[in-house]
Amino acid sequence: MTDDLPRPWLSSYAPGVPADVEVDEPVTSTLRRIAEAYPARIATDFLGAVTTYDALQRRVDKAAEALRQLGVKPGERVALVLPNCATHVVAFYAVLRIGGVVVEHNPTYTASELEHQLADSGAVVAIVWEKATAAVLSVREHTALRTIVTVNLAADLPAIKRVALYLPVPAARKTLASMRSRVRLGNDVLRWDRLVSRAHPLAADFPQPSLDDTALLQYTGGTTGTPKGAVLRHQQVAVNAAQGLAWTQHSIGTETVYAALPFFHAFGLMLCLTYGVLTASTMVIFPKFDVDAVLKAQRRRPATFFPGVPPMFQRLAVAARRTGTDLTTITHSISGAMALSPETAASWEEVTGGLIVEGYGMTETSPVALGSPMSAARRPGMLGLPFPSTYMRVVDPENPTHDVEPGQDGELLLAGPQVFEGYWNRPEETAAALIQDRGRTWLRTGDVVTVDDDGFVRLIDRIKEVIITGGFNVYPSQVE
Description:
By secondary structure, the chain is of the alpha/beta class.
């Protein structure tokens, strides 16, 4: 590994942001450390149902043992086909705790979309929202699934809301129908709540995964072609959350993160979930983005940190002004997935009084690689600066080992500890995406950029199609 590559962008960092970050524990050890340090702090708030960090860890331990009893072995893949909910958090960490590999799926995908990903990953167990179970069952014979565990989303609600769902009124019946579906149970189709409630906690001496163990198969794909599973180790997942913390400089145990982005998407998984746990934040979880639900939660448990996409910020700013909802507790926001217009950024900063910056990345970078500084030096409309420990080059797309002259257009290459291992069972695509040069592994982003003298990156064009995961563009764009 060579360390002589210049990083002129370091001088443009916000004060206090380090040049490099390191991690020394897998994702699961981070949760245990935080649970021991902040046991009484609220970890999750799902529509008013709260769980402390101590209770979250205990639920994870029971769920991990339940999965172990199902025969899940280290390295085996477990599919999560869930919307955002408290169970999603528990299942995510439980799979990782026993050395399993999480494979996230959009629960609104069609059966054919799910079939490809489930078959490709070789997942042996699927933890599935009841509303998505029929789709999974319909393609099961084409997969390696041994067991399907169904999740009743209503079970995550506060008790009073669960009771209200069964009231003999049209509104209750409509809400219940949107959350639940009847599922025929059997020896290999089980209920999550029953399975976990009957389990003992996982033995404390059960080995933790290592930083080198695979944590995720995160599917990514272009506007055309077949989605590919990006292989991400605990090292890459953990370090990207640590890079995010270095960037925001949040204090541990003080933040309230609004999880309106989906966990099944790399952007939401890192900025809302693994980042939330690393910072001992309270994660206010929304099953889907809804303006009224967010404003209602803001009045009940105000946010301090809001990761989102530009339409969220635009709609929330308008609604907050209309309803008189106070958003001034939100001091930091990160926008991704598409270009953040100066008008939307200004409107959001006016209504919150805080800062909003853009981030750039893709599933293959776990996912964030660049961002505008969390300071008055932010530059709307630009991709930003490389994160700590991240290197970049701008090269000739036809000869990716040849750097272009400063200020010229070229393809953006990225190197750093968050860059993925490769695509699952796709050596040719991996070889095309990753190149070895100057002692580092470089990811070809497929984006044409220019870099200012102070390191700020501007997107010019794309060589390849837009990368989409779970219905969202993973990174911001200047191209419609």
